[in-house]
C-alpha cells in the first residue's frame, strides 16, 4: 500500500499506474486511427460539403473497428475464462476492458469536440466510462462486464454500417435494407433478450460492486429507449408507405361515366 496526499490509501499503486497508462495509450491509439481515417480515406461525394457528416463518417469507422475488436476480445475472454460474477479480474480481462475504456474516452471527447453528441449518447458514454473505470480500478467483476461489452457491441457494426452506407449514397439498395433488418434483430436479441438476464444476475451478485450494478441498469435503460425509437421509426415507415402493388387502379373519367351509366 502507498499513502498519497490527502490520506487516501491505494492498493498496488504500481499496478494502478500501469492500468492508467494502458488506458491512456488506448485512447491515444483510437485518436490516431481517427486522424488516419480523416487524412487517408476519401470522403463520399454525397457529404463532401458537410463538415459535420464528414467528421461523423470518420468517427463511425473508428467505432466500427472498436465494435469488431471489442466483440472478438470479449468473446475470447468468455470462451477461455468463463463467466463468474464478482470474480477477480485476470490480466487478459483488464487489458480488454482498458482498450474499450480508452475508446470510450476518445469517443466522448471526439463527439463533444466535433458536435456529434446527443443526450442519449452522453448518458451511454457516462455509464460505460463509470462501469469500465470502476471495474478496472477495483480489480473485480471484469467477467460480467466483458459479457456486457460483447452483448452491447454485437449490434454496433450494423448500426455504424447503416450510417456509412447512407453517407455513401447506398441507402436505397438491397444491402442497406438487409443491414437494417440485421441491426434491429441483433439489437433486440443481444441487448434485450440476452441482456436482461445478464443485468438481473449482475444485480443479484453479492460480489459485484454497486456502481457496476447501477451502470448495468443504466445501459439497459438506454437500450430499451433506443429500441423504442426503432419501433417507432418502423411503425412510421409502414404508416407512410402508400399502397402501390396491390392497389386497384382508379378508372379514367370517361370509363367511370360509362360504369355509372350501366
Shape category: globular
Please, how many helices? 9
Q: Kindly state the mean pLDDT as a whole number?
A: 86
| Model regions low in confidence, pLDDT < 50 over at least 5 residues | 1-10, 242-262
Order of strands, widest sheet: 1-2
In helices, the fraction of residues equals: over 70%
What is the terminal-to-terminal distance?
100 Å
User: What is the number of strand segments?
Assistant: 2
Cα-atom radius of gyration: 24 Å
Q: Which structural class best describes the helix and strand composition?
A: mainly alpha
Could you tell me the strand content as a percent range?
under 5%
Q: For the report, how would you describe the main beta sheet?
A: 2 strands, antiparallel
Order of helices and strands: EEHHHHHHHHH
Could you explain the architecture of this structure?
The longest helix is centred in the N-terminal third of the chain and has 31 residues, at 51-81. The model is unreliable at 1-10 and 242-262 (pLDDT under 50). With 262 residues, this protein is mainly alpha-helical. The chain is built from nine helices and two strands. Helix 3 packs antiparallel against helix 4. A two-stranded antiparallel ribbon has the order 1-2. 30% of the residues are buried. It has helices at 13-40, 51-81, 91-113, 119-138, 142-153, 156-167, 174-204, 210-240, 253-261; strands at residues 2-3, 9-10. Helices cover 75% and strands 2% of the residues.
Main features:
single chain, mainly alpha, 9 helices, disordered C terminus, 262 residues
Compact overview of the structure:
By secondary structure, this protein is mainly α.
Amino acid at each position: 500500500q502507498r499513502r498519497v496526499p490527502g490520506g487516501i490509501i491505494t492498493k498496488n499503486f504500481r499496478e494502478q499506474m500501469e492500468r492508467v497508462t494502458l488506458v491512456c495509450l488506448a485512447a491515444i491509439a483510437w485518436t490516431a486511427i481517427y486522424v488516419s481515417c480523416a487524412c487517408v480515406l476519401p470522403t463520399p461525394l454525397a457529404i463532401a460539403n458537410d463538415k459535420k457528416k464528414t467528421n461523423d463518417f470518420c468517427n463511425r469507422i473508428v467505432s466500427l473497428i472498436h465494435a469488431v475488436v471489442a466483440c472478438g476480445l470479449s468473446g475470447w475472454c468468455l470462451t477461455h475464462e468463463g463467466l463468474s460474477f464478482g470474480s477477480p479480474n485476470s490480466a487478459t480481462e483488464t487489458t480488454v476492458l482498458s482498450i474499450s475504456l480508452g475508446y470510450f474516452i476518445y469517443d466522448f471527447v471526439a463527439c463533444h469536440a466535433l458536435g456529434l453528441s446527443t443526450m442519449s449518447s452522453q448518458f451511454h458514454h457516462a455509464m460505460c466510462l463509470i462501469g469500465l473505470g470502476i471495474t478496472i480500478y477495483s480489480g473485480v467483476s471484469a467477467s460480467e462486464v466483458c459479457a456486457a461489452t460483447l452483448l452491447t457491441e454485437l449490434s454496433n457494426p450494423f448500426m455504424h454500417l447503416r450510417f456509412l452506407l447512407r453517407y455513401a449514397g447506398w441507402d436505397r439498395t438491397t444491402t442497406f435494407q438487409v443491414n437494417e433488418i440485421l441491426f434491429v434483430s441483433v439489437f433486440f436479441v443481444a441487448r434485450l433478450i440476452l441482456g436482461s438476464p445478464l443485468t438481473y444476475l449482475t444485480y443479484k451478485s453479492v460480489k459485484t460492486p454497486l456502481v457496476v450494478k447501477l451502470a448495468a441498469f443504466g445501459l439497459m435503460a438506454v437500450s430499451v429507449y433506443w429500441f423504442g425509437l426503432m419501433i417507432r421509426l418502423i411503425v412510421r415507415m409502414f404508416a407512410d408507405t402508400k399502397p402501390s402493388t396491390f392497389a386497384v387502379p382508379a378508372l379514367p373519367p370517361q370509363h367511370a361515366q360509362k360504369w355509372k351509366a350501366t
